[in-house]
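Title: Comparing notes on inverse folding

I've been comparing how different people in this forum approach sequence design from structure. To keep things fair, I'm posting one structure and asking everyone to reply with a full sequence. Here's the target:
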């Protein structure tokens, strides 16, 4: 990839790599117990986000006019991919924390009124701990939204009703990345129960201190534990008229974020795979059994070759998918779903090899390899499950003849 990088991309990649090697990996190794602290606020010290701020990666996607660092729009998604891979190599939870800011900023710069962009982007830029979150998923499930199953009975259960003073929102959101920590949320709610979710879903800007909003809990997740995933409850929560971002077709408008989102998912996933490969290769070249280093045992060598091949294949597909999203090519939709799916399954296998090659050490929390296995597992579920991603691929390839994959039997 290096040969194709612009000067801007090369500089960003190198500063992220140095940040990860000098700060993140040593922090994660030394403080491995922090992941398991049941007070989520103290898991990741504020200096980590301040460090991300110093190298300019916390506010990507924010327009320059509001103090952000604007990337070259021709290669923005490819640059997002490059940086999120590097950060996830250090910790995928931290990468997740940061990429929510980028993804929601991309959405807000396209759909939020200018005066609200000015207000909130300026705060985001000024406050190093400021995080954004995107709230779609509800307890009744998210797959119907990804496919989507566009009938009134599958509509979002979070409801927003208009009155003469603005909007009143009631409902619940679950599994939200940054949900526990964010200062500003984009919330999706049904505004027309008579139609399907593609026509009846609206989005709203909701500051954390809005009366009626409760951050109900931090979910204790298997992996990505440095990103505090949360649940939100809305009880007669009022937002003013100008906080309505998109009316009716909010899911369509969120499309601006969905494709880059899949690329970023795959690239974070790749970062986990690269780290798993790095630690396994180091181990097998130093640890001795049967009178020789592990790498000199053929069975081990085969696994290392397998890991390297899977990582290279994910990278190759990622590069072409990211490019097609940047270029808005006809195959962008199918490729971004393919790479998200492919990365999740391939890197899971890479992480499995890594823990197995470490023997018992691979199962020990203080050794740190099992963390990569846990982090890899999360990618099978985020931004649509593997099965839903497969169905989306088929729907993109055969729009006329593919099944609906939903509806009464
Ligand atoms: C760590 C993490 C972070 C997340 N962050 C966010 C976030 O920031 N914002 C947000 O809104 N959401 C977020 N999510 C939610 C995520 O998008 C959903 O978990 C995911 O899309 C799956 O939805 P679900 O959990 O409701 O599963 P369900 O939709 O309940 O699916 C359950 C099972 O049924 C299968 N299934 C469902 N429908 C069909 C069908 N029609 N055909 C075949 N099989 C089907 C699925 O593949 C799955 O195996 C996050 C989730 C995780 C785990």
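Reply #1:
Here's my take.
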């Amino acid at each position: 990839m290096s040969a194709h990088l612009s000067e801007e991309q090369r500089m960003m990649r190198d500063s992220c790599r140095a940040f990860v090697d000098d700060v993140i990996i040593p922090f994660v190794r030394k403080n491995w117990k922090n992941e398991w602290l049941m007070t989520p606020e103290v898991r990741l010290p504020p200096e980590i986000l301040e460090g991300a701020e110093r190298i300019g990666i916390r506010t990507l996607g924010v327009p320059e006019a509001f103090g952000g660092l604007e990337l070259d729009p021709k290669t923005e998604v490819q640059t997002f991919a490059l940086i999120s891979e590097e950060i996830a190599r250090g910790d995928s939870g931290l990468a997740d924390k940061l990429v929510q800011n980028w993804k929601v900023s991309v959405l807000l710069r396209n759909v939020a009124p200018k005066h609200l962009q000015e207000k909130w982007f300026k705060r985001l830029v000024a406050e190093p701990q400021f995080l954004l979150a995107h709230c779609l998923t509800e307890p009744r499930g998210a797959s119907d939204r990804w496919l989507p199953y566009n009938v009134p009975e599958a509509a979002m259960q979070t409801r927003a009703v208009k009155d003469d003073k603005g909007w009143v929102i009631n409902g619940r959101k679950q599994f939200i990345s940054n949900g526990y920590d964010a200062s500003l949320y984009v919330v999706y709610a049904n505004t027309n129960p008579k139609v399907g979710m593609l026509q009846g879903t609206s989005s709203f800007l909701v500051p954390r201190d809005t009366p009626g909003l409760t951050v109900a809990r931090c979910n204790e997740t298997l992996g990505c534990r440095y990103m505090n995933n949360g649940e939100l409850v809305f009880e007669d929560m009022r937002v003013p008229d100008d906080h309505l971002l998109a009316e009716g077709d909010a899911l369509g408008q969120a499309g601006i974020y969905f494709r880059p989102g899949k690329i970023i998912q795959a690239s974070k996933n790749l970062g986990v795979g690269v780290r798993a490969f790095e630690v396994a290769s180091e181990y097998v070249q130093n640890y001795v059994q049967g009178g020789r280093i592990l790498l000199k045992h053929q069975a081990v060598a085969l696994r290392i070759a397998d890991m390297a091949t899977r990582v290279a294949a994910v990278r190759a597909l990622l590069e072409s998918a990211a490019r097609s999203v940047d270029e808005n090519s006809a195959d962008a939709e199918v490729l971004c779903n393919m790479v998200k799916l492919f990365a999740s399954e391939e890197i899971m296998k890479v992480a499995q090899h890594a823990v197995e090659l470490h023997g018992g050490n691979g199962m020990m929390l203080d050794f740190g390899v099992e963390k990569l296995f846990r982090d890899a597992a999360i990618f099978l579920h985020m931004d649509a499950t593997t099965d839903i991603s497969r169905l989306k691929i088929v729907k993109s390839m055969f729009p006329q003849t593919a099944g609906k994959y939903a509806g009464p039997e």
